[in-house]
Amino acid sequence: MDSTELRIAAVVPCHNEEAAVAKVVTDLKAAVPGIVVYVYDNRSTDATAERAREAGAIVRYENTKGKGNVVRRAFADIEADIYLMIDGDDTYEASAAPEMIATLLDGPYDHVLGVRKQDEEANAYRSGHETGNKVLNGVVGKVFGENVEDMLSGFRVFSRRFVKSFPAVSREFEIETELTVHSLHLRVPQTAVPVGFRDRPAGSESKLRTYRDGTKILALILGLARHERPVAFYGLFGTVAWLISIILTIPIVVEFYNTHTVPRFPTLFFAFTLMLLGSLAWTAGWILDGIRRSRHEAARLVYLRYSAPGVNGTVEASR
């Protein structure tokens, strides 16, 4: 099916982007004829909404602060066949959108990631952000067993079945990490396309805070590891508890063998407590792993209710 026959929606989260949002909307409309651009004004105190509306966007408001809240709202409210997500700061080359959409349809894929390629003369990556991004990519790759090229990219294209099976629980900039992990644990067909990445326009200020946002993302990864790899997560704590327990117990057993007395009873009690806690940790890991499998099966069934991008035939797709 040709992309012009499909409903394509762009979601543009914005907070105080009056200097950039009009160009983002204009570039998207020029690059993808027929695209419907939704600008979500997230508690802006400037003229973001006015500039977006003048450029031809549909402006909606999300008053709960945070990019994750915007994406959660947009994915729930907007009905489309293909969803494009791009930041409203004009740092991404919107001209890459047609290639990303065509790639999604040709696969067909459910998720096309725009991997940022910075212009040689640009300095769009702030100090520490590029290194931090690589570190987080590596952490997610190790935890979930998949290589991730640019986990924090804000330029992506999704199928309807990806969007409608995505729970969106993150509140702020962790949303990109959650999108990446969702695609990994659901094992959707996905690929990546290089996209240009440039400096913000004059008068536009970054909302990112390197250490604050990095800490939140790491906390999210830790939480996702607990939910998505519970046996490994709780098993690690259980094994450490067992090892400490054994180390504490051996001298006591040796002394008991030689003297038939237990002079360090509190230490022995502590060691037995650690052994019990280690066993409970492993038990919790196995129980939560069963719950994880059930969650994944439920998400997969929701995903399967929708047809592949550009393919008709399911009940939901034909509504």
Automatic annotation (TrEMBL):
Pfam families: Glycos_transf_2
One function term, GO molecular function aspect: transferase activity
Membrane-crossing segments per the record: 231-253, 265-288
Keyword entries, A-Z: Membrane, Transferase, Transmembrane, Transmembrane helix
Domain Glycosyltransferase 2-like residues, every copy: 11-163
Transferase is among the record's keywords: yes
Record-linked InterPro entries: Glyco_trans_2-like, Glycosyltransferase_2, Nucleotide-diphossugar_trans
Nucleotide-binding recorded as keyword: no
PANTHER family: RFBJ PROTEIN (PTHR48090:SF7), UNDECAPRENYL-PHOSPHATE 4-DEOXY-4-FORMAMIDO-L-ARABINOSE TRANSFERASE-RELATED (PTHR48090)
Family that this chain belongs to: Belongs to the glycosyltransferase 2 family.
Protein name: Glycosyl transferase
Species for this entry: Nocardia camponoti
